[in-house]
Recover the amino acids of this structure.
């Protein structure tokens, strides 16, 4: 039954032009507020890259926390989220020249952290979240204002759902 529904959603995107819903790794369904185009999939990192309009890029990744370098079995969901954020934050700081990294907000009660990376005048907003035992990473890089990017990512995160039959 799961396969039938997957193919129905998948093929309806081509037949009816409805390309705002996508299944991502681990049977999660992500619903965009408007149609987007899947541009690339990196199977190693589980990253899906979508194109939004003329020049916007949206990255979506849903991964098993237990397969991440920072994972420890005794961490709860909030601790896993904070460890993931620290791991990525440290990576950007140590591997990028002329990068400005800022935390925007931590909403641990809502299971997400917002932060931004500015590298060579390109500004990307990230939202890291935790759903069940999965780590979620969303980012957007386009011409929207910072507040619009933040609102977009929060709304997108809230529309990620575990597919259930």
């Amino acid at each position: 039954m799961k396969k039938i529904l997957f193919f129905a959603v998948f093929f309806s995107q081509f037949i009816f032009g409805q390309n705002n819903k996508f299944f991502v790794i681990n049977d999660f369904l992500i619903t965009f507020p408007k149609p987007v185009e899947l541009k690339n999939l990196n199977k190693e990192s589980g990253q899906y890259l979508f194109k939004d309009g003329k020049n916007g890029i949206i990255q979506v990744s849903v991964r098993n926390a237990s397969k991440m370098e920072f994972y420890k079995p005794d961490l709860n969901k909030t601790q896993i989220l904070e460890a993931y954020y620290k791991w990525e934050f440290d990576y950007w700081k140590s591997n990028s020249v002329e990068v400005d990294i800022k935390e925007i907000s931590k909403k641990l009660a809502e299971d997400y952290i917002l932060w931004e990376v500015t590298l060579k005048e390109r500004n990307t907003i990230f939202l890291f979240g935790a759903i069940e035992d999965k780590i979620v990473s969303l980012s957007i890089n386009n011409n929207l204002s910072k507040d619009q990017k933040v609102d977009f990512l929060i709304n997108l995160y809230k529309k990620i759902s575990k597919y259930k039959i």
The beta strands are 21-24, 28-31, 37-42, 47-52, 56-64, 99-107, 112-119, 122-131, 134-141, 161-162. Residues 1-18 have pLDDT under 50 and may be disordered. The chain has one domain: 2-162.
